[in-house]
Amino acid sequence: MQDDDISAKSQELCDLLAARLSLKHGSLEDRLRRAGRRLPARIRSQGQIVAEAEALATHPKLARRVDQAAVARAHAEVRAHLKGIDAAYLRRGALLGVLGGLAFNILLFTALTLAFLRWQGMI
């Protein structure tokens, strides 16, 4: 029963990481590692607790070493953090960052072109 419970918690966190941070491939441990700085260190470490518990729960003798209360607390904390992430806001921010960089480059190119034309005496 414990193995199914921990697997369900791990799968829920994997689904949330896929939905909120677009981390669709790999185990929970792989997804947490690839999330990198997009997740605070505390949340990553709490996620590691769930990932380690999932690995231990597959082995009958080692499953007894899993602290169910700690896993439940870690799962709840990571889930609460991931549910608070607005994926649309992150996408919008990334798009605005790209557009801002593009606008700056266009303005810089225009200014340099005008400076060059002025230097050549064409305007």
Task: Walk me through this protein's architecture.
The protein has 123 residues and is mainly α. It folds into two domains: 2-85, no CATH class; 86-123. It has helices at residues 2-21, 28-35, 41-57, 68-83, 87-120. The longest helix has 34 residues, at 87-120.
The N- to C-terminal Cα distance equals: 80 Å
Count of individual helical segments: 5
Report the principal-axis shape.
rod-shaped
Largest sheet: none
How many extended strands?
0
Q: Give me the Rg, rounded.
A: 24 Å
Overall number of domains: 2
The percentage of residues in β strands lies in under 5%
Unreliable residue stretches:
none
Give the helix/strand class: mainly alpha
Helix content: over 70%
The topology string of helices and strands comes to: HHHHH
Quote the average pLDDT. Answer: 93
Give the gist of this structure.
Helices cover 77% and strands 0% of the residues. The chain is mostly helical and 123 residues long. It has 2 domains: 2-85, no CATH class; 86-123.
Features:
77% helix, single chain, 123 residues, mainly alpha
How are the SSEs ordered, and which strands pair?
Blueprint: H1 2-21, H2 28-35, H3 41-57, H4 68-83, H5 87-120
Helix pairs in contact: 1-2, 1-3, 1-4, 2-3, 3-4
